[in-house]
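Example record used in the benchmark description.
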Amino acid sequence: MTVTIYHNPRCSNSRACLALIREAGVEPRIVEYLKTPLTRAELAALAKKTGLTPRELVRSKEAVFAELDLAEADDDTLLDAISAHPVLLNRPIVVADKGAALCRPPERVKALIAG
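Model output (structure tokens):
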């Protein structure tokens, strides 16, 4: 089973999701997106895989969201903003053989890794 988690080690939901993956006996590929930001194309592909809109992928409570005045932004602007400011990416996002999802709450990962 191939599993990738877009992870922020400072986020409790992300840490809990990673723990659930490991408890299932899977060692995922970990992408610390704050250290290795995703390109706009990678973000667009991730949105498509998860079935989420860029609006659903963005963390609207981050200060930079308000600073950039993104409340009424279109999808293209949001993808550009997340790429330029990776802290705006909602997490954790998990991509597995069975699909991809924003795993909030972390227990949502179980459907992706269940045997």
